[in-house]
Each structure stands twice: as structure tokens, then as C-alpha cells.
Amino acid sequence: MIVNLLVLLLFIGLIVLCGWLCYRSIRSSKLWVKIVGGVGFALLTLLFLGAAFTGGKGLASVYFPGAPAAPDLTVAGTPEQVARGEYLVNMSCIGCHSAAGADGAPTMQHPLSGGWNIAAAEGFGFIGDLVAENLTPGGKLAGYTDGELFRTLRQRVDKDGRQLVFMSLLPYGQLSDADTEAIVAYLRTLEPAQQSAATGDKLNFVGAMMMGAGMFGAPEQGADTVAAPPEGATAEYGKYVATFGECRGCHGPDLTGTPASAMGPAVPNPRPLVSGISEEQFVAMMRSGVKPDGQPFPEGMPWQVAAQMTDSDLAALYAYLTAPVQ
Ligand code: HEC
Ligand code: HEC
Asked: Is 317 in the pocket of ligand 2 (CB under 6 A)?
């Protein structure tokens, strides 16, 4: 934060300096100084003004996202809540927050002690470090109330209300109140584990400028209360399964595919394939990682996660993927 503020001050200093030099050039008695200096320093002033404005805007959106206050909430932690939370966490969160291996990448294994620097790993380390947090009570979450942890998931802000850069890209604000509470309940039961790596965000000024320019998309604010659609093999519930099952994070909000971007390569639209196969073939494909034509899913498709889904959740996903886009 301090470094980013110093960079911002530096840019403001450069704006003043170049503005002043521009003014002096225009006042000069020599015509070439008037033209070259005037235009050159005017352009530099505008350039630094743009950098300071977008960077300042990005920093403001991180530090003052305007999130609502954390709800006053105590999660009961019933066995049903813990079991539901375990199902959701092992499907969603473990992919990023599981213990980091020797290469720093998540191992998909417990403990959920975090430490994976997703920015460096995915090739956008030039915006700073975004390191998955330790989700066990051995880390900072021990100092969060249930309400603060609930708000972290719903609004993607930390205990102090600062925006979480990467979490904001994920659709967890759409999880129901009951499922959000179930996740809180389960995280509280984890064995405390330590994490020696520095976790959390360290966005640099380049990242702040990109954020200010809206290049990460505007984080959507979560509603005060969210209810899940009625459970069943319907397209509506299937869309909800695609939210906690992570499919929408990669295949796009409507599961129609995503083009290549700064955050990664293009991901295909799964609907044409799924529409051409039966529900049984779909379930078999998601459980085995092999498509009906005998081709395995490529490396980038984490079918092992979807393979753990219940039959009824897979049936709902099938209904969603074969229904008109909604
Ligand atoms: C695609 C990767 C990814 C997934 C999936 C993911 N997270 Fe995160 N999470 C991160 C990163 C990276 C951070 C560090 C802060 C940031 O950049 O958002 C983080 C930070 C957090 C934090 C710390 C908040 C704070 O106050 O500092 C919590 C809590 C959290 N995640 C919970 C979850 C839960 C619960 C799930 C599953 C429902 C989940 N995350 C899924 C990447 C992920
Ligand atoms: C981490 C990103 C990621 C997640 C999460 C993810 N997918 Fe994929 N998926 C991919 C990639 C990458 C491919 C294959 C790209 C290719 O063929 O080159 C793929 C391929 C597929 C295909 C095959 C498409 C075809 O025509 O060959 C289906 C079906 C599919 N995914 C369904 C799902 C479902 C359902 C979910 C949620 C349970 C899901 N995916 C979650 C990245 C992801």
C-alpha cells in the first residue's frame, strides 16, 4: 500500500513538473521551444494524469469498495451444515486453497493451508502477488467472526472491508445464505495448519491501473440474502450447481465458452457436445474424464472435481447444459 501511494505521489509530482515545464515552454521567446516543449510536455502531463487517475481509481476500489457491514451472525455448525460445507469446499475451494506442493502449485490435498501464488503461476505476475489464503483456523480466519467470514464470501472483501482482487472474479456472491453458512461451519472444523508463505494480495501500481481501467471487470455486489433454486434435475438448479461446481468460472457465466484473455486461454462451449449425448453418457464422461468418442479431457479441464458430484447434481447440470441458454 505504502509503495503504491508513493508511486501515486510520484506521478502527481511528474504531472506538476511537466505541467510547469509545458507552461514555461509556451512562454519561451524561441518558437521551436514553444512548439516542441509545449506539445511534448503537454503530452507527458496528460500521460501521467491518465496513469495517476486510473491507478488512483484502482487503489480506491480496493481500499474503499463500499461493502455493507458484516452481518451479526452465529453459525450453528450442525452436522448437516458441516457435511454440506465439506461437499462444497472439496469441490470449489480446494482447487486453489489446498496445501501447496514443492512447486508452489495446489495439490488438491488437505490441509487447506493455501500459499499458491495464482498471479505468478498463471502468467500475470506483473500485476503483483495474489496468494491463496490459509483457510484453516491456523491462519487469519481464526480472527474473523462468523458474520465477517460470511461477508468475505458474499462480498469478496476481507475483515477490514478491502476488496479481494482474485476472489472478486469468482461467483461465490451467488451462493445461497444456507450454503455460505455451511462453508463457514465446515472451515471452522478444519485442523489448524500453518502457512509460512505470505498470503493475500500484493497488487502493484500496474495492477492498480489495470483495475482502475476496468480490465478485471467490475466486481458485482452480493445481495443481502440469496436463496438457492429448488433442488432438482432442472436447468435452474443446474445453473446453481455450475456456480459452486466452478464450471462458470472457466466456461463463462452462461457456460457458452470464454475467449482468451489476460487471465488465460480460451475455454470451449460445452453445450454442443453435451446436447448430443444422453444423460448417462454425460454422467459417465464426468466421472471418468473420458468423452464418448474415447478422447480424455485435456489437462485444463478439472473433471476429477466434478466426478465427486452427487448423481442428482450431475443430472441438474445435464438439464442446464441441454436447455436453451439462460
Ligand atoms: C481460483 C482460485 C480460488 C478459488 C477457487 C477460491 N479462492 Fe479464495 N482466494 C484466492 C486468492 C488468490 C486469494 C487471495 C486474495 C485474493 O486475491 O482474492 C483468496 C482469498 C480467500 C480468503 C481470504 C480472505 C481475506 O479476508 O483475506 C478466503 C476466506 C477465501 N479465499 C475463501 C475461499 C472459499 C471458501 C472458496 C470456495 C468457496 C475459495 N476461496 C475459492 C483464490 C481462490
Ligand atoms: C479450470 C477451468 C475449468 C473448469 C473449472 C471446468 N472446465 Fe470444462 N473444460 C475446460 C477446458 C480447458 C476444456 C477443454 C479445452 C479443450 O478442449 O482444449 C474443458 C472441456 C469441457 C468439456 C468438453 C467440451 C468439448 O466439446 O470437448 C465439457 C463437457 C466440460 N468442460 C464441462 C465442464 C463442466 C460441466 C464443468 C463444471 C463441473 C467444467 N467443465 C469445469 C476448463 C474447465
From this structure: yes
